[in-house]
Amino acid sequence: MKIALIGYGKMGKAIEGIALSKGHTIALKITADNLQDLTIPNLQKADVAIEFSQPDAAYGNVMKCFGADIPVVCGTTGWNSKAEEAKKICMQKNQAFFLAPNFSIGVNLFFALSEQMAKMAAKFPQYDQVSIKETHHTQKKDAPSGTAVSLANDMLKNIPRLKSWKGYEGDHAHEDASSLPVYSYRIGEAAGIHEIYYSSEDDFITMKHEAKGRSGFAKGAVAAAEWIRGKKGVFGMKDLLEL
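Above: the chain sequence. Below: its structure as tokens.
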């Protein structure tokens, strides 16, 4: 399979390594230094694109992939409203768009466990103190992380007393019982830690996922690229993993 890599930071390099190890080739590699090469003719040399760039560039990059009529797998986070617009355009133009806040299989199992925990905790109002904490490397632009936002939104769907979530950078007092606090920390080279806390007068429940590095995310992105070939529509990790 010929892959166009749009974005070649640490994540893009990890994806390249996994792709090459599986026998794929890199047909196009877009970095900050050769943005002029991101053209429809160049994209058409690839079978699929994998996009890990910046929130302000993701929409335009995805639109170019649609214009080139190639599937695009996107892991950029922090562009939520435009991403929803991209999903609609994908369906209108009969394209293929795979969007996920996190491509790690472990994280997506964590999503499923968190959703189930929220459904159970909603039945027991004594667990009235709920929070999320996420920690990433200092180069990460968006806060909270896309993974933390997805966790928070899933919890809101399943815990009726929670009406919204509120993000904080670092420790911060939170006294609104109707909102879910999401605390973000940026430390060194942390690959990604997500923690969910439920507290009552009697006990404390913690759920945690910690990435050892970027390889899990890269493996998931390449698996998504392999899976989406020949398909049309909007997809996510639940489709790939059949969760």
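The chain has a mean pLDDT of 95.
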